[in-house]
Amino acid sequence: MSSFSTGLYGSTIGSIVGNINDAFSGKTSGIDVNTVVSELMQLQRQPEVQLQNQQSTIKDQVTALNSISTQLTALYTSVNTLKDIFGAFSQNSTGTSDAAIVSAAADSSAAAGTHTVVVNKLATTSSSYSGYIPSGTSLGGTQLVIQYGSDPDNPVKTDTINIPSGDTTLKQAASYINGGSFGVTASVMTDSHGSRLVLVSKTSGADGNLNITSSAASFTTAAGIDAQLTVDGTPFDSSTNTVTGAISGVTLSLGSADPNTSVLISVQPDLTTASQAIQDFVDGYNAVMGSINSQYSMSSTGNEGVLGGDSMLRTLQNSLLSMVGGTVSGVGPYVNLQSMGIEMQNDGTLDINSTKLSEALSNNYADVKTFFQSTSGWGQLAGKQMLQITDPTLGPVAADINGLKQTSQSLTRQISDFEVRMSSVQAQLTTQYSSLNALLQQYPSLMQQIAAQLSSLPSAKSNNG
To answer: SS3 for 80?
Structure first.
């Protein structure tokens, strides 16, 4: 029995004995049954308190494990980013010598290199406007035939637009056109001479050129043209100013035309994204290791964390240390994390030697990429290990949590059964002490009766005389 329980036992028994003595001595008319039973039940419930404390500890353990599990998932994600062939080490960045003329964006399929681009013409969009339409004149019930493309005899597409007879104003006609699935947008332009219906092609370049015929009005058209540029000396046409296909994996955005200026477009590995991915991995790993280390740190009361005695946690810690300290071969000059500047500290956390890592990325990017992405590289091995660790069923943390939850459920059943027994014990104690209280309450009158009988005896009278 703990010192707390011993103290509680002595205090409770002393209180009950004092209560009974007061009743015997006449200080009170009886005992407080409810108080006595409550104090006795407090002693009876000590095993239940221990069960509840154990359950509370398990709850804290599960909370701590869930937090570590979340951190492990984030770490697994960061490892996948490093080993994914479409991940951080497959990203490219671009540069341009004149962004006002042309800029670029590259996807993971683009090859590193430098290209020369000359923008001769920008793509434009065809538009057409009607002659002035007298006020009060309606286009309702009329037809517009719109052909698209640079060759009227061989149009890319044809729209036949029948303006509803109820649309008696130009704005209504424009609204009807905009509400349909036609290849133009419509608006009304009004100046001091009157109003015009303006149509603008939804397709830029030559394929979007408009050729409009209508019995209601004549239209004047401004043709659209394709963008014209040369890439590494090769002519290239584009119907839009967003150019794809000229450089594999690269999208060019044309800003202005300048036939006399050659713009240099460079494509190179995205060192910033790769460096950030490594930093994210180190941060994720340190978060997990920090949480584990905290469980073994002594508090001000000299106690470890709630998981300090959990052997699984020590096994997990060793597994992670083995992962980051692992060595691979046959993948180039970098054989482990430390060789590229990711160094282990005394507490098991990682620190980045920024100078060393920057040098590795700048001068040996392909080798660093191979280290992480090769089928026999560190990234693949770490990914498999993290997959096992974070398995939602068989992973060590998940299994530990499931075991603790089962123990907690067992404790819940024990507490429930204990409560049933305590109800019976409380009823029994209440009956016993109620009977005792009844006897104690009768005690004064019994004493009076005895005294009266004694005083009536002859010897008592004689002695009194």
So the answer is: helix
401 neighbors 66 (Cβ within 8 angstroms): yes
Q: What is the pLDDT of residue 45?
A: 75
81 vs 88: CA distance, rounded Å: 6
Taking the alpha carbons of 202, 203, 208, 209 in that order, is the dihedral positive or negative? positive
What's the pLDDT band for 81 if we cut at 50, 70, 90? very high
* Residue 6 CA: distances (Å) to CA of 11, 45, 104: 9, 14, 80
Q: With residue 268 as reference, give the H or E element that holds it.
A: strand 263-269
Could you report the per-residue pLDDT of 300-348, keeping only the tens digit for each?
666 788 898 889 999 999 999 999 999 998 888 999 999 999 999 999 9
* Cα(2)–Cα(330) distance, integer angstroms: 62
Q: Which residues contact 212 (CB under 8 A, 6 or more apart)?
A: 128, 144, 145, 146, 147, 199, 219, 221
Task: Identify which of 137, 39, 158, 126 has the alpha carbon closest to the alpha carbon of residue 430.
Answer: 39
Cβ neighbors of 166 (< 8 A, separation 6 or more) are 140, 172
φ/ψ (deg, to 5) at 383: -60, -45
Type of residue numbered 306: V
Any idea which residue has 């046409």 for tokens? 237
Contact status, residue 322 vs residue 337, Cβ threshold 8 Å:
no
**For the chain, percent of residues with pLDDT exceeding 90:** 63
Q: How far is the CA of 57 from the CAs of 61, 64, 389, in angstroms? A: 6, 11, 24
Cβ(149)–Cβ(156) below 8 Å = yes
Q: In what order do the strands lie in the sheet with 143-148?
A: 157-162, 143-148, 210-214
Q: How many residues comprise the chain? A: 465
Of the candidates 223, 143, 131, 209, the residue with the CA atom closest to the CA atom of residue 176:
143
Question: Quick one: which of 132, 154, 279, 158 has its CA closest to 218?
Answer: 132
Maximum pairwise Cα distance, the chain: 155
Distance CA(115)–CA(112), nearest Å, equals 10
134: Cα within 13 Å, side-chain hemisphere = 3
How far is Cα 21 from Cα 10, in angstroms, rounded to an integer?
16
